[in-house]
Amino acid sequence: MLAFQYVGYLSEFRIEFDRPAPVVVSGLSGAWDLNVRTETAAAEALAIIDPMIEHAVAAASYYGSVGRRISLHETLNAQLKDVLVSGRGGLTDADMEDVAAKLVASQVRRDLALVSLSVANGRPEVLLSLFR
C-alpha cells in the first residue's frame, strides 16, 4: 500500500508505504534514511521519490503560473492607472477651458453693459427715442 499526503507549503509532506515495517517519510529529512542497498529497496525508494519529484514539478508549475498572472495584473493595473491619471487631467483641462470661456463671456457682457450705460448717460435723448 502506498499513501501520499501533502499538507501546506513544504510544512508537511508524508509518504507512507508498507514494507516489513511501515515507513513514513515526512518532509525531505526522512528521504535520507531510505534503504537503497537492494534492488527491492531501491524500487521502493524510487516509489517514494518519484511522487515527490512530480509534486515538486507540479508545485513549481503552479507557482510559476500564479506569478505570471500576478505580473499580468501588475501590468494591467499600471496601464489603468496611467489611463485614469490622463483622463483626470483631461477632465480638469476641459473644466478649466469651460470656466475660462464662461469668464470671457461674462467679461464681454460687463463691457457691453458699461458701453451701453455710457451711451445712455451721454445721450439720453437717443435712449428716450427707443421707447417712443
Automatic annotation (TrEMBL):
Q: Which GO terms describe its cellular component?
A: bacterial-type flagellum
What keyword terms does UniProt attach to this protein? Cell projection, Cilium, Flagellum
Q: Which ranges does the record mark as transmembrane?
A: none
Coiled-coil ranges per the record?
none
Q: Look up keyword Repeat and say if it applies.
A: no
* Molecular function in Gene Ontology: structural molecule activity
InterPro entries according to UniProt: Flagellin (IPR001492)
What is the name attached to this protein's record?
Answer: Flagellin
Name the species this protein comes from. Rubrimonas cliftonensis
